[in-house]
Amino acid sequence: MTISQFLAHKSPGKSRLFALDSGETDHLVAVTALSSSDLDLTDDLVGELNEFLFARAPGPLEKVLERVPDAVRMAVRRFLNEQCPPMPERFSWYGPIENLRLSYFSRLDAELERHVASAYWLGLGLRLENQIEEDGRTGWEFELMTAQAFVPGSVEPRSWYLPTGVELVRTWTSRESTGGDPVRAALTVARAQAELGRWVRVHAVEHGAGDDPHESATTSELVVDIFDAPAPRAECDD
User: Fold this and answer.
1) pLDDT tens digits, residue range 176-209?
2) Banded pLDDT at 87 (limits 50, 70, 90)
């Protein structure tokens, strides 16, 4: 289940709260309902639920939950625990992140560098990894997204979850020395490690100084994860 938004349907006697599940098809999932005596809390509750999806900061939401009936509070908490696991890669300052384009490049050259640089400086999300083509050569899959994911300051600067069963050799970020060009520095690291036969993944994040993006400064960072494993096979070579 991929919850992207909370909504409310209001009537004179009741407000029904729903979550929009944007999985393979969009559909609504019932969360809870507020009776006529608590209708005035509907907008506050929906607003803080949507803010929680993005920032994952429970404080403001808990203040609203303290004002609602026990049954509503329990239903909301149960729904969040069961259906809304932390997914920092899916949200930005502007809401849910969507994929824009998936491209494949035969080599990490100047053309691919221009694509990565353009996405990074515009604040778009990007993911890049090396893959092995059918003929044994190394290619690069480039995914472009609508925005960089926000990652709280309390966690590692990574929104692309690490694969299981693979040893992480090193993580490089653009907080290290870049010579004034973080994109070129990141791609230089990625290219060198790929030439050594290692699997490499590059992505961009908006890394906060705190857990709430509205209360802390954020920094756009490039992250390079290097694994002690060969690159995976390309699913397609088009």
Assistant:
1) 888 889 999 999 999 999 999 999 999 999 888 8
2) low
Six token digits for residue 64: 């609203």
d(CA 158, CA 151): 7
Closest CA to 47 of 8, 74, 90: 8
Q: Which two tokens stand for residue 84?
A: 């809304």
Dmax over CA atoms of the chain, in Å, equals 68
Q: Does the model's pTM come out above 0.85?
A: no
DSSP code at position 80: H
Q: What span, in angstroms and rounded, lies between the C-alpha atoms of 191 and 93?
A: 31
Q: What span, in angstroms and rounded, lies between the C-alpha atoms of 211 and 193?
A: 32
Q: Which residues pair with 206 in a beta bridge?
A: 150, 220
User: What count of residues does the chain have?
Assistant: 238
3-state secondary structure 169-184: EEEEECCCCCCCCHHH
| C-beta of residue 120 within 8 angstroms of C-beta of residue 204 | yes
